Amino acid sequence: MVPGAQRTFHSSWMFLAALLLLRGWIELNSFLWTIKRDPPSYFFGTIHVPYTRVWDFVPDNSKEAFQQSGVVYFELDLTNPYTISALARCQMLPPGENLQDVLPRDIYCRLKRHLEYVKLMMPSWMTADQRGKGLYADYLFNAIVGNWERKRPIWIMLMVNSLTEVVVKSRGVPVLDLYLAQEAERLRKQTGAMEKVEEQCHPLNGLNFSQVIFALNQTLLQQESLRAGRLQIPYTTEDLIKHYNCGDLSSVIFSHDSSQVPNFINATLPPQERVTAQEIDSYFRQELLYKRNERMGKRVKALLEEFPDKGFFFAFGAGES
Ligand SMILES: *[C@@H]1O[C@H](CO)[C@@H](O)[C@H](O)[C@H]1NC(C)=O
Ligand SMILES: *[C@@H]1O[C@H](CO)[C@@H](O)[C@H](O)[C@H]1NC(C)=O
Ligand SMILES: *[C@@H]1O[C@H](CO)[C@@H](O)[C@H](O)[C@H]1NC(C)=O
Q1: 297 occurs within a structural domain
Q2: Phi, psi at residue 188, to the nearest 5°?
Q3: What is the pTM of this model?
Q4: Which atom of ligand 3 is nearest to the CA of 218?
Q5: DSSP string of 177-189?
Q6: How many distinct structural domains can be found in the chain?
Q7: How far is the CA of 207 from the centre of ligand 1 (A)?
Q8: pLDDT tens digits for 241-289?
């Protein structure tokens, strides 16, 4: 289960935890990593899927560690309305600009067509359970897609990527990391965030125009293939949940789909496009992995040193879908 050194880490906290593990500072126990001190502190790998799908599989020692810890840290504080509105603001185009003015005509039209398709399909994608909770397709569509004409293309790309039947079916139940944040609040624990919204958002906004158009084009091509039944997504959220529940750390960490952004490197791409895909991949690796690891590592270390008497529980995403 110890990650092989030659593999690529797709999740920042795992990278940090692996370092600590190698140095003998922590013990490995499924998705809970104990930092030996008194009281102990913990790293816990969460996953961005409905908590009901995984909660029963989270080992009791992880739940106890959470209960016992006085201070809980998340990547972002998602229960804070400021965080949510800052995230939304960061995704917007500059004032006065619209997607239609920014995107090449062909891409804009395909995007519009795809969103119309999703809107049409949404009612059939929803479960009886969701409808029972008063969640309606129109409402859900607007919650995810609303105001799309004002969003930056990179966020449109991520949105399109997540507008799938599986993701839609999972809406309405808090994802595991959000559930833990709500529990921490309910149990009146002290909470904190390891990152600022800008630190997560600005690197994504920093991709240049031709790269973003490439990414959006590839994402649309993929969705269009799916729609036409020519393509099956090879690694689904279901697989991610299965691996997580089996404590199969490496599959979750090392799967391409566990990273925050989709992977465009595709063996059938023509050479020039392959270069662009590789540039995007290394940009994200640099900005979202290495720089972020370093930043988070420093903050974790500083917190542990500043408050030696406190028991911390650091909950970081192990896989996002
Ligand atoms: C975007 O960045 C890539 C890689 O750094 C570069 O080759 C390309 O010329 C840039 N394109 C624009 C429009 O700035
Ligand atoms: C989208 O990608 C396809 C296939 O790689 C390419 O032929 C087409 O020119 C691209 N469209 C745009 C607008 O970049
Ligand atoms: C790889 O790229 C080609 C050309 O853009 C596309 O037709 C194909 O669907 C892509 N495959 C996957 C798995 O995305």
Answers
A1: yes
A2: 55, 45
A3: 0.80
A4: 5
A5: HHHHHHHHHHTT-
A6: 1
A7: 9
A8: 777 777 665 555 544 443 445 666 666 788 888 888 888 888 887 887 7
